Structure formats: C-alpha cells, structure tokens
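Methods — Computational structure assignment.
A single polypeptide chain was analysed. Its primary sequence is given first, followed by the predicted tertiary structure written as structure tokens.
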Amino acid sequence: MIKNYPLFINGEFKETSNKQDIINPATGEIIAKVSLADNHEVEAAISGAREAFDKGAWRSITLEERKEVILKISKGILDKAAELASLETLNNGKPLKESTFMDIPSSAKVFEYFANNLKELLEAETISIDSQIANAESRLIRQPRGVVALIVPWNYPLLMASWKLAQSLAAGNTVILKPSTLTPLTALELGKIINEAGIPKGVVNIIAARGQDVGAKLCSDSRVDMVSFTGSNQVGRKIIEYTSENVKKVIMELGGKSASLVFAESDIEAAVNGSLCSIFLNQGQMCTAMSRIFIEDKIYDRFISDFVNKAKRIKLGNGLDFETQMGPLISESQRKKVAAFVEQAKKDGAKILCGGKIPEDSKLNKGFFFEPTVIANVNADMAIFQEEIFGPVVCVGKFSSPEEAVSLANNSNFGLAACIWSKDDQKTQGLAKKIDAGSVWINTYGMFFEELPYGGFKQSGFGKELGKEGFFEYTRLKNITADTTKGAKPLVNYWYGF
C-alpha cells in the first residue's frame, strides 16, 4: 500500500487535495504520495510561525528547556535511524551505507551539538568603554531573527534540513521548512519526530511545495524575517529577487565546481581513493564534488591509470543492496542533463576515458543510472570545465607547478571547496591560502564538523552554516549601552541644556 504524507502546519498534520507521486529513482516505481501546499497552506504556515514567535512560548522558555526539546529531536532521529536510512535511500537513491553511516547519524549529531552549546553561543558579551568623553558599559546580546524560511535541496534531504533546523531552533526562531518535492519524505518524517519532542505549536512548519507555485509568497512576505537556501544558482537568484521586496537576511549556499590538486609527493593510493570518493559519492550529486581533478605531470599517467581502473569497477545498483557502491541519479531529467554535458564535451574535443553513457545492464534499465565518467583533454573554455554538472562526471588535467595548479583551481566562477593532496605541509598550507574557496581539505575530502563553518565564495553564495559563525547567521546582534560616568551627568545633558 502506498503511504500518504501530509504537511505539518501550526502543530497539525494536514492533507491537501493536490498530491504528488514520489518515485524511487532506482526502479522508477511510486513509493509514496505527498500533499502539496499552495499559497493557502503557505499563508497558514507563515501565520502560524509568526504567531508562535510573537506570542508563543518558544521565546519565553528557558534555555535549558529549549535544550531539552532539541535533544529529544536528536534522540528521536537515532531511535528511528534504520527506518529513516531506508526511506532516504528509497527516495533519493543513494546507497544504504551512505544513508546509514553518514546522513542519519550526522543529522542527529547536529541537533545534539547545538542543543549542548546554545548557552555558550548565546552568552552576552560585556564591553567597558573608558574614554575622555564618557564612560559606558555595553552588553552585546544575540536574539533570534524571528520567522525563518528554510529551503533545502534533494541531494541530502534530511541532513540539510537538520543543519538548518538545529541552528534555527537553538537560536530561538520559528521556522517554515520547504523540502524538495523530489525528496520530501524524511523531512516529513522529521516533522513527526519534532512533534513528539513537544515543540510548541507553530514553531516548526513543514510544507512540500513546488517553488514556482509558492516561492514568491514564501520569500517575499514581510512576516518572514530570513531565508536560508541551499540549491542551484538559478533558483538562488530568483529567491534574492523575491526577498528584495522586503529587505531581510538571506543565506545562499549555491553551486560549485570544486578542484582537487594532486602533487607528486602525495600518497598516490590515498589520493586516488579519496578522489574517487570526492566525485562519485552520492552519484556526484554534491555541491562540493571535486568535478575537476588536476594532477602534477610527473605522476599523471600513474594516477589516471589507477583512477580510471577503479572507476570502472564501481558497482552500480539499487541503494538498498549493501554491495551497491553508486546508485541512480535523482530523476530522468537530471540524467538527461548529465548526458547532454558529456555529449557536448565530446563535440568540443574532450576524450572520454571511461563511462559517459547509460549502463547496458538490464537490471538497471528501470532506474536513472549513469556510468562513472572520467573526461580528459578538457580546456577552460569548455562548458564541462566551467559549469556544475551534478552527476558522476569528472574532468582530469595536469599541471607542472604549484602556481599553475592554483591558477587552474581558481579558474571558475564558483568558490565552494577544494582538495590538496601532498605530504609537504608547508606547501599545502601556503596553497590553501591562495585557493579561492570557502573550504579547503588537505589529504582528505568532505570532512564536515558541527564546530566548523561551511560556505563558499563567488557564485557559490554567501553566509555560513555550522560552527558559531553559522549559528550567528540565525541570530541578530543587539548593542545595549549605558552611561556609567560617575559623579556627572551624560554629555548629551548639556548639548541643548538651558
């Protein structure tokens, strides 16, 4: 029996007459039906969140009580870890081991981290001023921004929702979460966990909706104080346009065209294996995917031989099979987009070293699979070099000097992440400063920690997630200053005194 998923608005689960089929990308089968919101439901969600922030209990409860509720959400995720992991794989297509060992525990951990650290993060700072004009004491306090709209993508449905929700709730905001209509299931299950944790009515609202139907309403409404978006540049620009109608805080985590630099003195085996992970994890559907790998010319042939041979052996299949190493792309339209990039690269003169097509295995013909693809002979003028593909496709090239490596890495409109593979610590630290990216990993890939900020430069967006810097994005800073000059009236007393 196909399960129906309702929306979660103002403390209630609500079905709508407008439903969308949710597809398992590995099989093309319908696995659920989800209620879709229109502007009427968005209005209810905004009104509920606004009422909950302005008049509800969430702002008035103690930090200890807030902490307890958020910790219950973390525990609720872990209690349903197996169910959530299977659902994430069914809905998104990623291998079950990724959902089980990465997505679900990381989602629980982010709630736990911000719950356990919210007192320290929200602690007021006192600054004493002693000047010739006057003495003063100022308290800098952080307060919630208000109603926050959280818009998350389909590649990490539960994890991205958890990142944004944990920070928003710990800061004391009320939220409207809009997951992708392709992958809304774990976010809607999270709504049940949040409700069971005892969150006050209206504090969290979760609506599945098509952006073209409700985006303008959600992002332009003056009752929404902040929009935090992770997704494509095209949609991001539209959201900025909407938010400009009523000036508000915006976080944009957009696309990437990240580069990995492999030097001759690196551990080549580790660099090859790490680079495979950096582009083929989650079928390459990652903003931080190292879709451009540049290798020092001295080791280029050896690296490429090992890399291509291992890429050819990656096992494609249904993510529920523990032997599967790479699942399907999210949809047929996404696969067509990836295939079009590869075909254009071939026309432009690039060389396909492996992959580049839909697999011929009959067991995979009902899903949206695409072979791991390695492309050489790529130059900076090609679309495959400059544009985000969001699939299992990597461009490889060579360099002869550190300066050339940095130039290649920075030859992009994006600036989200980068990798450096080298045993020379002095070299890696120096190069990391020169690479124009928000995160640089050395001899590893994809290390995300709740304690560390994440966010990009250039067309990869602005603002941070995670760490104290990310948490502070969801707060507003207030300066409360009192004159403390002893034995005298403040200077302003005499300005127009008579």
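Note: Residues 259-442 form a domain with the Aldehyde Dehydrogenase; Chain A, domain 2 fold (CATH 3.40.309.10).
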